[in-house]
């Protein structure tokens, strides 16, 4: 494509059954926002579009669990998600929702057009049915073993372990998520998109047309799908939550969520265009528009195969120029999991780190999982802030602004003769918009963020080399030139940092008093002067503040608590043993005793030799508790002892009794003891 006249940028519609976490941000929304902001700065016509995905089986599933209506669920999470994005500075031109009337109308019309054109096939197919619940089971209402990798908790449409898509009927040992019963197979009528019909087109368009410009992780996944052979895929479902299929003989059926959700990009664009007085069709139907989908790894097949097949079959729409999907972001070495609460939630981050949106934006960009899975750690987050944003970017700006105010009352000085170092620095600055821009245009956001930091490094090096705080004592005129050059570097940082650090950019423009100057990306490369002599700047403010160890420890403690809660949930309560008679129970003589002595049993890890006063005598008991307690800490501990157990020799020591124990959530042992101190020998009954 020659230079496009406009850009349509879509960011995956987040699903409204939970809030946004850092995996979503790193995979989709931060890179998409950098791209959109950059394009606007370079003077392009941009529609940056997203919205909440509010249909599908997971919504009514969550509603049933919480005892509310699906509408309550989507309203709650749409509100949380939308506000989180706004507070975090994601600059959507429009953020809509698929429950909106305009979306229902758009999706229904899209389906009808394809139906009228004969683009669907109608089939009676076998589907899993829960007889007790009296309903067909949508994919997310079925859990079973993945037929490809053997993961035992795969959903009916996709395995969260290996990423493979499949039909619910392909699962091994499927179970209904509603009742837990094994479902039966029952026939039902549905409409299918025959992907096999579009296989030749997809091979030519993707495998030939995009083999050199799509990311290898995206191209590889698509190639594997196409070469495995494409099959018809249902576009309708038996469900009572969603967009009703607009046909007379389709009562009780809705559009499958994967079919209606991507159409949400179109309906959201319509909503924006109507508000802004634009023609939405220009952004979806004109060949001089560049369409780019930002998505995560798990959405590649939908945006690279299925949605393009839909657009092609419909006939009126352009196809995506690129789908720069990222891989997954892990958290502290473990896979992010919404269901297990193993995540850093955006709305909670914004509460815990007020006015520090850009720190997270920068960290996620610098560690973006662009070609392979990557890991977010709180220690690295702290290091990125303290060692880069504070020590490099913030330090440079602070020194320049403080010195300008100290020496010249905040008025930019007039330069005299430029030295070779001055000219080299000013020439180098002009190269950064081009190098950063090229990286962004190739979807290399990590690379671009490091180029931005290199510009700040250039400024720091220039100041360190020229040492204006020393030169001022011997050559005041020279210092004017040094600070003039440093102010030009500062102004360039204010402009080119905006896609990555929008809050910092705005604050820096305020400090430099250039908010109304409207400097463009091109200006940094082409203007000889960005901040003129005699320009009044404002007082210094810290752009970033150091993050202390205790702040990071608090976040790690939060994750440790989550991990413990997950382990507690996993713990299996042993089933009841064989039933005994009351007479059997009365044979047990359990007494309260006190540990008088304790020592480790030689050549063992688990055993302690105890002397226990059980009221009627003092006896020796060997107990396997050494990994949970040291001998010193249990002297004087009251315990419950089964005293009429037959003596038994353990490691050559005769043990006369058994200490009753249980275990704690962290796997340690705990004594079964009386709530208050009681007399040794008291019976437990």
UniProtKB/TrEMBL annotation:
A motif ('HIGH' region) lies at residues 14-24. Its cofactor is Zn(2+). A motif ('KMSKS' region) lies at residues 335-339. One of its GO terms (cellular component) is cytosol. ATP binds at residue 338. Its main location: cytoplasm. Keywords: Aminoacyl-tRNA synthetase, ATP-binding, Cytoplasm, Ligase, Metal-binding, Nucleotide-binding, Protein biosynthesis, RNA-binding, tRNA-binding, Zinc. Residues 584-685 form the TRNA-binding domain. One of its GO terms (molecular function) is ATP binding. Homodimer. This is Methionine--tRNA ligase.
